[in-house]
Amino acid sequence: MKSFELLLIKIGKKTTLVSFIGGTALFLGFCFSRASFLIDFGFTYLVTAILINLFVMLALIVSCFTYKSNRASSVSTIFLQLINIPIATMYFLIVITITS
Fold this sequence. Notes:
The chain crosses the membrane at residues 20-39, 45-67, 79-98. The protein is mostly helical.
C-alpha cells in the first residue's frame, strides 16, 4: 500500500500545481483582456478546482491516519494545497473589484 500513498501524494502535488497555474493564467488573462467570458469560465474553473482539491485533500487526511510512514509528506502536501486558498480568494476579490 505504500505505493498508493506515494501516488496520492504525487497526485496532491500535481493538482495543487495545476490549480495554481490554471487559476493564475485565467486571472492574468482577465486582467489584461477584460474579456467577460473569462469570468464565467474562471468561476467554473474555481468551483471545479475546489471540488477536486477538496477530494484529494480528504484522501490525504485519511492517508495521514492510515499510513504513518509518509505522514510528513502527506501533511506538507496538504499545506501546499491550503496555500492556494488565500491566493484564489485574492484573485476572486480582485476580479470582483475590477468588474464592479
